[in-house]
Specification:
mainly alpha
Length: about 150
Amino acid sequence: MPPLSPSAYFRLTRASALYDIAIITPFATPWTFALLYPQLSDANVALGGAPLPACTPVLALFTCLLGSLVLLWSSLRLVRTSLVLGRFDATGRAVFSVWMAWTLAQGGLPLLWFYLVPEVLWAAAQAWPVSPGRSTLRTPHLTLVSRQR
């Protein structure tokens, strides 16, 4: 299997960050999560699982903390795309996948398949070999602060 070019790898890493932003944004605030949670429960029931338990303030707190952190992490990967951040993301996705698989094994949450499958695919893609090159460590990034001369 041929390695990816650095530019292809950086595009892949940015695409994974955009995917995360699209998927995780509803989990980042208590208000958006409150709108999403009933739909998640309905989807889980439609897939043969049980309704999700009532959403408590503690559940919302931990969900929103995680959602906020993932948004920040995704923004960093988008603005400062690099091989190192892509590899860290692949590792994080592998860890998330293990916990999702563990939860699936407990039963009753078939909705997780919609999150687990992309997570495993993104992890594998970002763990793919990259051909060495001068730009392997970091791509040009957006400058958020103007540079002084």
